[in-house]
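Final report, closing paragraph on structural work. Over the funding period we assembled a curated collection of sequence-structure pairs, and we close with a single example.
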Amino acid sequence: MVFRRVLIATAALSPLLSIFAEGNVRLIGLVMMFASHAVVFYALLARNCRALVSVVRRFEAHGPELWLTLDDGPDPEHTADLAHELAQRGVRATFFWIASELNRCPGLVREVEALGHSVQNHTLTHPKWSFWLLTGQQLNAEIAGATNWLSAEGALAVRYFRAPAGMANLGLARVLGETGLIPVGWSVSAMDGVTCDPIKNAQRICSRSRPGSILVLHEGKSDRSGRKRSQETILATVDKLLQEGYRFVIPEPERLR
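Its predicted structure, as stored:
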């Protein structure tokens, strides 16, 4: 917390030194300005960076446990089937959903959570390219708005938040504090949001998984041809990890790291 405040204060005040100071002090101000702005820019865009927000990236495992998280749903054609397939395998997952997509999926929150899964906050509209630039008002609308929508659809306990692409925002810590949400990142990614090759994606995530890892994969979209095989990737990954002796759990907040 202290580091974040110092970083933001330095980025805000160092330009004054570079403008109004003279000689070596002005040079120091320029160096501080460029360095602090570079760090802030990195912290905003780097996935799961903790410089601005205390993002959870692991959890305390009780044996060979993993936390399966699935982003970018729901989808009216595929999500329900995926939730049932996972439940049949004894797998509990956390679905980070874009709340506005629920317009196309009435009743799905209750159906998915009745299977033992959890539905959590992945913003209202998923502003992937502009999340780091949102104003405080816009950020609150995206986060609090999503929580309200999910709750209205029957979500039992919306307490986790995942930012689009794991990005940050200068106002994110404040908004999360006000809404009581815990920011959750990941330990291992299948990179299936970039390229959807079920075999390669499954191999990637399985080779990097360790007890306490938070896995992130992405739900496929019926209207996005490049992501139609995401469900295949998810199930292939789960089946392989089950064969290796892992269990899938949704950890309690006190176990998060």
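Strands lie at 65-73, 93-97, 118-121, 160-161, 182-183, 188-189, 214-218, 247-248. The two ends are 16 Å apart (CA to CA). We thank the funder for supporting this effort.
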